Amino acid sequence: MKWITRSNVKVDRVACPWLIQRFVDPEAEFLFVPEAELLETARCENATPFDAPRLAEVKLNHRGDGCTFEAVLEDHRLDDPALARLALIVRAADVKGQEHVAPEGLGLRALAEGFAQLGLSDHERLARQFPVYDALYEYARRLVS
């Protein structure tokens, strides 16, 4: 299945592909385009759009105080307590004003900003940051056990 989001990924747009590939769709293919091209490219590519808060048509998006990672958990009925804890870390890193929900979020935000400054392509950012999310998931598993 194809999934599509805005280019220049940072926190939620790295965390969601990690979550999707690890727990929803192991064969997922990710596309990254400018926001103005998102809906049309999604239609042309038959891709599921995610994390585009300014586009009301996108179902997998921030909801209330939550981030898109939490919407993916909800829509795909992923009830793993470690993923729920990781979702709070992602929200704290991604959503301004939600930093208080997980102290680890500020560190994750700093890492995402650093990767963005390296000038890597979006696909390279995923490749380099997925191990960070693997490690955070293991950390979260220990917290909730």
List descriptors.
6 helices; 145 residues; three-stranded parallel β-sheet; single chain; mainly alpha; globular
Describe what this molecule looks like in 3D.
With 145 residues, the protein is mainly alpha-helical. It has one domain. Helix content is 54%, strand content 9%. It is built from 6 helices and 3 strands, in the order E-H-E-H-E-H-H-H-H. It has helices spanning 12-24, 38-45, 68-75, 81-94, 105-117, 122-144, and strands spanning 2-6, 29-33, 47-49. It has a 3-stranded parallel β-sheet with strand order 2-1-3, covered by helices on one side. Helix 1 (12-24) links the parallel strand 1 and strand 2. Helix 1 packs across helix 6 (122-144) and helix 3 (68-75) runs antiparallel to helix 4. The chain is globular. The termini are far apart.
From the N-terminal CA to the C-terminal CA, the straight-line distance is 33 Å
**Share of helix among residues?**
40-55%
Low-confidence stretches: none
Mean pLDDT: 97
Q: Supply the number of structural domains.
A: 1
The secondary structure category is mainly alpha
Helix and strand element order: EHEHEHHHH
Compute the CA-based radius of gyration: 14 Å
Residues in β-strands, percent: 5-15%
Query: What's the shape?
Result: globular
Question: What's the β-strand tally?
Answer: 3
Biggest β-sheet description: 3 strands, parallel
SS element count, helices: 6
Strands in their spatial order, largest beta sheet: 2-1-3
